[in-house]
Amino acid sequence: MTPMKQLIKVLWVEKKDIISAVIFGFIAGISSVGLFAASGYLISKAALVPPLYALIVLTSTVKLLGFIKASAKYAERLVSHRATFTILSNLRVEFFEKLEPLVPQIFRKYRSGDLLGRVVGDVESLQNFFLRVFYPPIVLVLVFVSTIFFTTFYSWAVAVILFVGYLITTLLIPFLFSLKQLNIKQQVSAERGKLSTEVTEFMFGFKELKLFQQVDNKRQALLSQANNYSQTQNHENINKAFNQSFTGFVTFMTSWLVLAVGAYLVAIGDLEGIFLAMLVMISLTVFEPIAPMGVFPIYYQESQTAVTRLDEVVNDHDVSLDQGNAALSTDSAPYLRMNHVAFSYHGDWRKTLSDISITIPRGSKTAIVGASGSGKSTLLQLLIKLQFAEKGDLFWNEQNYTMIRATSIWEQTRVVLQENHFFYGTIRENLLIADENASDRLLEDMLKRVLLDHFSLEGHVAERGENLSGGEKQRLAIARAMLKSGKLWILDEPTSSLDAKTEQVILDHIETLAQDDTLLLVSHRINGLEKMDQIIVMEYGKIIESGRYDELMKRKGYLYEMKQLEQSMLG
What processes in GO biological process is this protein linked to (predicted)? Predict the structure, then answer.
């Protein structure tokens, strides 16, 4: 299904309001034509001094048509705008539901600023699809067909003129302007995405820009991009105005032609003079609904571009999507296996992981060590289904990862990542995301275990935890992992920002809690790994050695060299 068909499918959910808007729009349009036609006829008839009752009937008809037009126009605006806002709401919900399963893989390919531009700008621009693309042509055709049919009873020549004017203003002019507008709209969307990216990078990287004294340079780049976006918008607005102006010019020329031909027909006796004013008034009025058609190609291209950009994200074949829907068959401590697994990030020239085959026994304690960039963190993300393997198979007990629902794995996993997010609010609120039913007493006990007992549960946490130190963030993340239930522990450098004494106290608590669980620990430090059941050493995305601590020390390989280097640095 094409993106535009998907959009129409979402739009058609509000078919009751859509049909009502078309009906009210037609009534408003045809009553407007009737109002001016009756007014023109009334002017001509009054000049002939008809009986009073005839004037009363005509004036009453004019007033009635005016009342119908106003009421129908109000109802049309009410229903069409209600439908538009509801359709926008449905679009946002549907797009988010499709986008949510793609996180965090989506950030491998798209920058956050670009995504923000699509989520906000492109979705917002689709508000014009119903109001200016989908429904105006339907109303216009109904009003024009009815009007031209009515006109044929008085003059076929005038009917043909109106029909030709209709074709020029609704087909020829929009087609010619759409060719130019296509390039302009693509430029606007591209510049908006670039501006969103520049703004987010300026905000998130402000501290670094300050420290490296690059704020002015980045600000100039941001202002330059804003200026480029403003210029493309101005170019678009000029094109819109010129389109509407030219369409208006053609409609007025059509009315002048109706007047000229009508006068000629009256002169030769083919048309009664009393109907001339009526036909001219009809030509002036029937083209009123043409005004939205002047910008029809602009908004059509805008909607098409927007829905294509949104579809490009949620249906991107380069971004893996979790297809599993099975629950885990057991909630006991798992054993894990990887068979010839490979993985690389989008656009990366190298393999992050290459031909990884490991077994993590049930209830075992495994350490993964290696230099920075060796693929340790990526391996853990595959195990908790935050990333998906390009090749090879992963197993949780005997269940293949491709069959398991990601949420089922997360329910059984306690995770501390290298970078942990903290929400604006309080310490209590940031801990309760691990266990929303936890009592204050339990929360305070967890803070005590990670040596944060001086924290108050009502203590303020700034956005992204900016008011917390690196060590405090790590300990708070560990406290959340301790609060959560689950038989698999995934710890990615959980104590890298802690001093040796604090680290040892916290690791002892983790050892006690995870006594019967399966645990994986990523670490740069060799000291303290003697207790591990196995150690996996990685380099350049490959496993270069594995085994127990004493076995690897006897081999005097990579781990032995790391140990010697660590000891020499500690003195």
Answer: cell redox homeostasis; glutathione transmembrane transport
E strand residue ranges, 462-503: 488-492
Q: Which residue has the tokens 């680290």?
A: 503
- Angle at CA 296, nearest 5°, toward 294 and 298? 100
Tell me the domain boundaries of the chain.
3-314, 421-485
Q: Distance between CA 546 and CA 74 in Å, rounded?
A: 76
Question: What residues have CB less than 8 Å from 307, skipping those under 6 apart?
Answer: 3, 4, 6, 7, 122, 126
Please identify which residue in the block is written with the tokens 């040796």: 500
Q: How many residues does the chain have?
A: 571
Nearest partner of 430 among 471, 489, 472, 470, judged by Cα: 472
505, 478 contact by CB (below 8 A): no
Q: Which residue type does 127 have?
A: Q
For every one of its 571 residues, what pLDDT tens digit does the chain have, with 9 covering 90 and above? 677 778 888 888 888 988 999 999 899 989 988 888 888 888 887 777 777 777 788 788 888 888 998 999 999 999 988 988 888 888 888 888 888 777 777 776 776 767 777 777 788 878 788 877 888 888 888 888 898 898 998 889 989 998 898 888 887 877 777 777 667 767 777 787 788 778 878 887 887 787 777 888 888 888 888 888 888 888 878 877 777 788 888 888 888 998 899 888 888 888 888 888 888 888 888 887 776 666 677 777 778 878 887 887 777 656 666 677 888 877 789 999 999 999 887 666 678 899 999 999 999 999 999 888 888 989 998 999 888 888 999 999 989 988 988 888 988 999 998 888 889 999 999 999 998 899 999 999 999 999 998 999 999 999 888 889 989 999 999 999 999 989 999 999 888 888 888 888 998 899 899 999 999 999 877 877 888 999 999 988 899 999 998 988 988 888 888 888 877 766 5
DSSP 516-562: TSEEEEEES--TTGGG-SEEEEEETTEEEEEE-HHHHHHHTSHHHHH
- Pull the structure tokens for residue 365: 């304690």
Q: Which backbone phi and psi does 366 adopt, to 5 degrees? A: -120, 130
Query: Bridge-partner residues for 521, per DSSP?
Result: 367, 491
Distance CA 515, CA 512 (A): 5
**How far is CA 164 from each of CA 85, 161, 169, 282, 321, rounded to the nearest angstrom?**
36, 5, 9, 15, 52
3-state secondary structure of 457: coil
Residue 165 CA, chain-centre distance (Å), reads 41
User: What are the beta bridge partners of residue 331?
Assistant: none
DSSP string, 8-36: HHHHGGGHHHHHHHHHHHHHHHHHHHHHH
Classify burial at 494, counting beta carbons within 10 Å of its beta carbon; exposed 0-12, middle 13-18, buried 19 or more.
buried
CA gyration radius for the chain? 35
Please state, in angstroms and rounded to a whole number, the distance separating the CA atoms of residues 392 and 404: 16
* 3-314 under CATH 1.20.1560.10, yes or no: yes
pTM more than 0.70? no
| Residue 454: burial class (beta carbons within 10 Å; 0-12, 13-18, 19+) | exposed
CA angle 487, 322, 480 (to 5 degrees): 35
